[in-house]
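Hey, quick one: can you model this chain's 3D structure?
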Amino acid sequence: MPYRLEIKESARKQIIRLAKPDQRRVMAAIADLAETPRPDGVRKIVGADNAYRIRVGDYRIVYEIHDRVLTVYIVRVGHRKDVYRNR
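Sure thing. Here's the predicted structure for all 87 residues.
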């Protein structure tokens, strides 16, 4: 059963700021998370209960998986050098 995708408003804005080809690749990766929330290459974020990240070129998608309600919540999208910095 596919998971429901929710994208945080700040993550949506981060995606919009990307170049068009990068936007397409990131959105395709996000769409794939609905079917496979833990794809090959996924990494759990240390210190977080249910946070994960996937790599899409030089960009990272940080997201949470809520298995009980079958939801993937996209928290942050950004370049690998910036995405883990606190805001």
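One thing worth noting: The chain has two helices and five strands.
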